[in-house]
Specification:
There is one protein chain. The protein has 1 helix and 2 strands; from the N terminus they run αββ. The chain has a two-stranded antiparallel ribbon with strand order 1-2. The protein is mostly loops. The longest helix is centred in the middle third of the chain and has 11 residues, at about 35-45.
Length: about 80
């Protein structure tokens, strides 16, 4: 899961401190799965409530997208 960095008055806890990151309601869960498993996975997870280290994570309807065919990108300055 991607969580925002330190900004807008919010400070991201230091790595390795055991402090939990707070997820917003708009945080997206991304799962990479083989094409043949996507439909079944989406059906099984829709409406599920997951326990992530004692915290509830409600899963809504899935939206699928293809992986990028682009290889590793590097910025050169």
């Amino acid at each position: 899961m991607h969580v925002a960095g330190s900004q807008n008055g919010w400070e991201r806890p230091a790595h390795g401190t055991g402090t939990r990151l707070l997820l917003s309601k708009r945080t997206k869960l991304t799962i990479r799965a083989p094409k043949h498993a996507v439909e079944r996975l989406a059906q099984d997870l829709a409406g599920a409530v997951l326990d992530v280290d004692g915290c509830r994570l409600a899963v809504r309807e899935a939206h699928t997208r293809l992986l990028s065919k682009q290889g590793t990108l590097q910025a050169v300055t």
